[in-house]
Amino acid sequence: MSEDTGDDELAELSERARKLLTGRVEFLLSAPQLKFLPDPVVPEIAFAGRSNVGKSSLLNALTGRKSLARASVTPGRTQELNFFEVGEPLALRLVDMPGYGFAKAPIKVVERWKMLVRDFLRGRQVLKRTLVLIDSRHGVKDVDRDMMKLLDEAAVGYRLVLTKADKIKASELAAVHAATEAEARKRTAAFPQVHVTSSEKGMGVAELRAAVLADAES
Ligand SMILES: Nc1nc2c(ncn2[C@@H]2O[C@H](COP(=O)(O)OP(=O)(O)O)[C@@H](O)[C@H]2O)c(=O)[nH]1
Ligand SMILES: [Mg+2]
Prior knowledge:
The chain contains six helices and seven strands; from the N terminus they run αββαββαβαβαβα. The chain is of the alpha/beta class. Necessary for normal cell division and for the maintenance of normal septation.
């Protein structure tokens, strides 16, 4: 009985999440500095990850779009927080954070990135969750650990999300999944459960939509 209720609730959440995230989604603004942030009027979910991790592709898959988030041409060029509005009436915002870990970035650019992101994470009351994307082929790298450290220190809860799961064999995927969950369990603000996704194949996308909505409503 109670299990049936749980399944029903999950099905209801998933359906609401699909309708919401594939419904009205519009680019709002890019904030190169905190003074350009929109008023904090609805829950926000942020997306972080190394350049080329598949962040734009995942945002497109979650929202059922082809080109909501521009696929970045020059890695590391985008140094802004990009806000997208979801829902009619407005229900939540997605925040595309600038990619990190690009090899050729000057120290000044990296420092500017870190200040912007750290100040955003620390000060944003409406930020409900951050999704930290990890490329399935590479697993967690030191630059990802730096990001997790920023989140742990800011006490912003986050989910680790493996991307491009279609690119590796099932056995390799199982291993990287287990290793990534082991990393997650070591962190104070991370969810112990790691999401596995492929924007290309649509794998894990419905589950992640439901998680995003649950987080926004938490
Ligand atoms: N096979 C595969 N390729 C992907 C997937 N997600 C992204 N990519 C590719 O990875 C590259 C970087 O993706 P993009 O979304 O622009 O990454 P971003 O820099 O993090 O925004 C592009 O060539 C995408 O087509 C996926 O799930 N499967
Ligand atoms: Mg991108």
